[in-house]
Specification:
Two copies of one chain form a homodimer. The first copy, chain A, is of the alpha+beta class.
Chain lengths: 220, 220
Amino acid sequence: MAADKVILLDFYPSMFGMRARVALAVKGVEYEYREEDLRNKSQLLLESNPVHKKIPVLIHNGKPVCESLIIVEYIDEVWDHKSPLLPSDPYLRAQARFWADYIDKKMYAAGRKVWTTQGEEQEAGKKEFVETLKQLESELGEKPFFGGDSFGFVDVALITFSTWFHTYETLGNFSIKEHCPKLIEWVKRCLEIGDVSKALAEPNKIYDFALARKSKFAAQ
Amino acid sequence: MAADKVILLDFYPSMFGMRARVALAVKGVEYEYREEDLRNKSQLLLESNPVHKKIPVLIHNGKPVCESLIIVEYIDEVWDHKSPLLPSDPYLRAQARFWADYIDKKMYAAGRKVWTTQGEEQEAGKKEFVETLKQLESELGEKPFFGGDSFGFVDVALITFSTWFHTYETLGNFSIKEHCPKLIEWVKRCLEIGDVSKALAEPNKIYDFALARKSKFAAQ
């Protein structure tokens, strides 16, 4: 694999981009990180993802792969020498894909309502966000990771959102731990994995980014 | 595989349910089809898909798999003796997953606007619908199938929508063939595969269903 050239087109605060970063990190893949300015996207991004024009894009030996969960599954299939993310059993694979899809369908939209809205809309967002996390906490059950004894596909899909928890809690004025203590314990376990924590954005930087965005919304 | 017990909880006009029917058909898997009354869902459906409470659900030897593309991928992995749906190369697999995801994100919502709305909203829906199909036609290119020389994952994901084309065209007063002639040729090629055409709903029955739904909307 020494000859592999891997480039990641990404945006620092993106929980979707972070999924690719985490997967590459746990697989020990070296890559070139390229930060995109989303208001002035690079020609490479526009050419690599002409359909959605979104980050993240993983470019492996010149060939682009788009959409974060598809990228993670691609990484898992190409670099299959260590840290398998999806289980080998078809039923367990289907279950992992189901929960990753659930996170995609629910977490971003609910989280966004928490930090960008006010009043009733924000309360509804918080309710939806907490219900989503509780559902995930219930799926986690007593297992150390969603992947069972080891960090897996659903763990990758969800852990990147934890970098936003401080922002959701501060701007939404609520405590996630109060509602979902076991999920917060799971976050801690994930962060103890060095490759995972190194690949994640810093919660304080996410918060600064969110505050800057909010003041821009307010000015518009 | 003779001892396998396979049940599909489904709803006849559903393009998502039809994906499971098509995948099971091309794999030659025998199964019990159970039509759901979506206004009075069975206890089995509610227990098998407690998160979304939606069809289709594939129950394989008592274990439920939910979400249509996840079901198709599961079927492809379990019954891997014939008609592979996803290619074996990781990059081609990622591409197939990308286009199936694109269909999921775009087709249903655009199609729904075409047949349930009027006036400007309907025109916008038609525009979006045609643009989506043109994008897919461009991806198909000169290949016989999205899967290349053989019917594959993206073909399964999209062909089920063709059973609704008559409804979209009649209620939207436009011709899909006029905009996307090569895609209509692709539909014909898919329908020549006996196992595929047998598994699809009849366009006239879909139309009757849509008309009944529309008159119910109007009465509300």
